[in-house]
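Why ATP-dependent RNA helicase DbpA? Reviewers of the renewal asked for a concrete example.
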Amino acid sequence: MSNTAFSTLALPAALLGNLADLGYSSMTDIQAQALPEILAGKDVIARAKTGSGKTAAFGLGLLAKLDVKYFRVQSLVLCPTRELADQVAAELRKLARSIHNIKILTLCGGVPIGPQIGSLEHGAHIIVGTPGRVIDHLEKGRLSLVDLTTLVLDEADRMLEMGFSADLDAVIAKAPAQRQTLLFSATYPDAIAKLSERLLTAPVQITVEQQH
Ligand code: ADP
Ligand code: MG
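Here is what the prediction returned.
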């Protein structure tokens, strides 16, 4: 059996220590396949079922790259719903517990915009949000992506099903062309293939079949 210890990865010691504290003793299949590519800076399309640990796959990638001393939005994670964005933010905060002063902000529709505007004035390293609300903040000039290094589309198939295609294109138009883009999806319909062609550069494709 291959070695799936997190310590085989080029992860900062603080992240490895925290993973041990969290009881994450070995990588899931999707993590073992995707993390080496993500840490190498590649664009990745990853397909795996729910509960396979996709959040830590992209989360450890963006946390490893993040410069906490540089207080600018360096990562954006787009999710189809507020519930999913809240789950992703909670998992990222768990994974980032050993990184002092890291600021992870959620920007979702269906909640009052006022507090979000206030939070944005204070700044953040990582934004997790739904496409409609994120584009709203971008268009009003309250959020800038000029320092973005990593863009994650989580549950991309559901975002397209929910009609977020135009919002995704609008977000991309405001993001630097030079960036790492990671696309996670449970299914891989034609629309996702087309979206990937628009958003990703020479992506590595990873599919993890049903685990038992
Ligand atoms: P997905 O996005 O693929 O549906 P999640 O990222 O939400 O899955 O992860 C599912 C659960 O597995 C979460 O509770 C998470 O904390 C846990 N988890 C993820 N990776 C590991 C790991 N390597 N070891 C132990 N638990 C893990
Ligand atoms: Mg998920």
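Residues 24, 27-28, 31, 48, 50-56, 91 surround adenosine-5'-diphosphate (ligand 1) (CB under 6 Å). This is the kind of structural detail the renewal will allow us to pursue systematically.
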